[in-house]
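Revision sheet: structure tokens.
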Amino acid sequence: MKNKFLKIILPMLLVVVAIFIIGPGCSPTPTPPPPPIVEKAIVVDAATGDPFPDITDKDCVGNYITNGYFNTTVQSPNIQVDEDIIAATGWRRVWKKNPPFNVIGADLFSSGTSPMGISPAPAPTSGNYASMWVTNKSTDPNQYREAMFNRLHHYIKPEPVPVTYVLEFKTAKLNNTAQQVEISIYGVNYDDIAPVTLPLQPSVIATPTNINLFGAANTVFLGTIIIPAGANNTWVNQNIAFTPNSKEYPVGGFNYILITRSDNEGKGMAYCAFDDFCLHKK
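Predicted:
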């Protein structure tokens, strides 16, 4: 009887002791999520009208894009895996949270870092870079509607004598099986000092259209670029040119650049990298 008692009770006591010493389930302590990214505040310089006069891109003199090479950040690009474009000063999310959907934005990675294991980093390495999903299929889930939103150093406005601007940048398609995708670029007049409410994250991928995210009166289409199916993991130079005119442009010009999927229906979907944005007068 005594032996039978020990056979039953002793294992139970050992389990209790193990739980007390090691902890239930013997599981490692989970890693806490990274703290929220504190975006650098926009404070316009009274003398120049520039919100970020201390940020310059030495390889693009007179760059209207703020931090076009993603070199200035408020924290390491690798602390948060994705949705962290706002860690790069001057770059912002495009819409606010629309429960139950997540706030979707572009991602930020350091030089040579593989983007979420999808593919090798684009070559050759060129410092920090951004990346996001681009899909031209209206049937895809809304979480693939990603975008980047950059606060320009200065407003771009129609001038008495027309001036042409050129936007140059690099792209790389990161998932090798993806088809050709089309990306559109817009100028947006957005009051970020006493800001109107950011648009809600779209609940479906194609509505509203890009031109209506901030209202047609505040938005102008600047151009479209195509990333071909064969451009895998290698940087490709892109550029668009535009000449502001008072008929089509927002009153007062625009102070933001919006980069996102084209509204044109297509079959392509790809995870794409972006770097070296340089917007200058021709």
